[in-house]
Amino acid sequence: MADNVFDAIVIGSGISGGWAAKELTEKGLKTIMLERGRDIPHIKGYVNANKESWEFPHRGGRTQQMIQDYPVLKRDYPLNEVNLDYWVNEKESPYTETQRFDWYRGYHVGGRSLMWGRQSYRFSDLDFEANAKEGVGVDWPIRYKEIAPWYSYAEKFAGISGSRDGFPTLPDGEFQKPMDLNCVEKDVADRIKQQYKGQRIMTIGRVANITEPLPGRSNCQYRNKCWLGCPFGAYFSTQSATLPAAQKTGNLTLRPWSIVTEILYDKDTKRAKGVRILDAQNNKTYDYFAKIIFLNASAINSAWVLMNSATDVWDGGLGSSSGELGHNLMDHHFRLGASGIAEGYDDKYYYGRRPNGIYIPRFQNYGDDKRDYLRGFGYQGSASRQGWNRDVAELTLGGDYKDALSEPGPWTMGITAFGEILPYHENKVTLDKSKKDKWGLPVVNIDASIKDNELKMRKDMTGEAVAMLEAAGLKNVKSFDNTYYMGQGIHEMGTARMGRDPKTSVLNGNNQVWDAPNVYVTDGACMTSAACVNPSLTYMALTARAVNHAVGEMKKLNV
Amino acid sequence: MNRRDAVQRIALLMGGAMIGSTAILTGCKSETGKPTEWTPEDIAYLDEIADTILPTTSTPGAKAAKVGQFMTVMVNDSYEEKDQKVFREGMEKLNEAANDKYDNDFIKLTPQQRTEFLTALDKEAKDYAKNAKEGSDPHYFRMMKELTLLGYFTSEIGSTQARRHVPVPGRFDGCIPYKKGDKAFT
């Protein structure tokens, strides 16, 4: 076999790319995984993982230089001193915005699996059926029962801790033992269950931090420094989980610094034959060939790769024949909710820094519940005792003030809503050839916004947050809304959606590009709707399922 | 700070946005400030201000935690130019006010005088904030106090002596007894 010929090519090394590489190599396929950025080796690449707050000159905060260098990242919390190197260099890789879209990227081995929020929830049939029932977008080509075994498969390997709650909108999975709720959260959970007669629940977050060891990985040590990279391998990332599994097979070639510029399409066979890359370091072009290609560059960049491919056949690129490539961009809208004070717990505290919070699954528009908008939202949050950054009654400075701030403050509890955004054709990414990145490649333009349905939902998100916290006995409950811009959820989805009809979707029910069935897209791009839960677990399940399909087709000589 | 922490912090903070480095909450446009020179006297002076806000008690205070030095780093690197100006002029204003009131430099005041003086200044800063129009400069004493709290409680002393710091907790226990006087965990 020539050194540029493989059985399979995986484009991207984040959550879904890592899964594709693991599954393909474990099924015996010689696979090359192409990553546009640098390598970050497991553990030794996590240079700040063991640093303490006082070892950072600005204690984790941001400098004016950083603010200047990162015009997008600075818009929200991701711009910080402790894991700055994990975020894309915005000067090298710009994009343009017709409407504001905050695009937070990680261009390195592992992608955003290193910095992700790790909340891991299954979609339910409430989600898979919604588009068809409501006449929104197109119907998902799959239902829950088709993906359920793949969720189980993904959960067992990734290691998801959580509790089985038997709640209809949030299917249970194969969980490791759940993390604890703290004293206040426990009581709030009990009161919510009671007040709402089981129609609403509050549970511990289902999170990709392991509470029981897995091969090569320790259980969570409760440092809450996940997004620096975990030296214990305690949360799921490409580095901690899928990459070592793929490497163990001896079938994987990992090539960092490889910007895929196009998928090479063969008009005669109507299949892709390989990919072309630009080496980000030496600027040379290389071609790689394979029977199967998995495109996992993250939703917006996967659309970019497709738009740049097979343009001699389709002006809009590979997968554009439906008119949907780059369209239907989704995210989750949030940054609003409520908080209050829990009285009567002054003699209670907690030990350890739990990298997880509570979850209140969607209860809107389910069963007899009807709202003046479609779909719904869930809440994430936690209770904790306030820290030094608080006001102390009667004291402004001096020894008593210092000693008071050295003790834990009052208990507060806050919840933030995460809501579904509908797929709107007009929310889209396109190629912007007027601007080039460091390598002379055209950039993307993003043009998307939330609309009436989301705005109506947002009113309800704060209203219900206040009502629930008050019902749970919290005092001085106040709502907050810090406004939301698309992208801030860092859950880009939908730009190459799955569907049942090549006229209205880019991918079929097995994640194959209708126009090139040996190209599979299994990252956020494939999502037909967004649901209101964190999406990464669904990418894992869809990827494993798609690889199983691809290898089956290969054996049948169909791809 | 990950998304959950950020969300939580925003949800829980009653005190409002911090200056300069955390423009995250205000979204204000930034201009790069020029680093300014600081003399050892400047740092010693800031140390005394910080140590009046957070003095040595059963645990070392802000001076021991080198908060004066930390303030200069933050003002140089994280403050916008206009805020740097407010801070530098504030250092002079503070000393002038000390001279007006006690006929002496701040650094020469007795501990009791310093406490009395800065307590009054803290009230002035709070009253100023209450009446300030949106977009107007923050009061210099708010800056000093804010940097003192941040600098102290994220320092090694503030983390490991004033509070309890367990680098690798190893487990999470959601409900343990607490009695008044027990220090907070970091």
TrEMBL record, chain A:
A Pfam family assignment: GMC_oxred_N
Cofactor: FAD
An example molecular function term from Gene Ontology annotations: oxidoreductase activity, acting on CH-OH group of donors
Ranges in coiled-coil conformation: none
Alphabetized InterPro entries for the sequence: FAD/NAD-bd_sf (IPR036188), GMC_OxRdtase_N (IPR000172), GMC_OxRtase_C (IPR007867), P2Ox-like (IPR051473)
Keywords attached to this entry: FAD, Flavoprotein, Oxidoreductase
SUPFAM superfamilies for this protein: FAD-linked reductases, C-terminal domain (SSF54373), FAD/NAD(P)-binding domain (SSF51905)
UniProt domain Glucose-methanol-choline oxidoreductase C-terminal: residue ranges: 423-542
Glucose-methanol-choline oxidoreductase N-terminal domain location: 84-332
PANTHER family: PYRANOSE 2-OXIDASE
Stated family: Belongs to the GMC oxidoreductase family.
Name of the featured protein: Choline dehydrogenase
Automatic annotation (TrEMBL), chain B:
Protein name: Gluconate 2-dehydrogenase subunit 3
Organism listed in the record: Cnuella takakiae
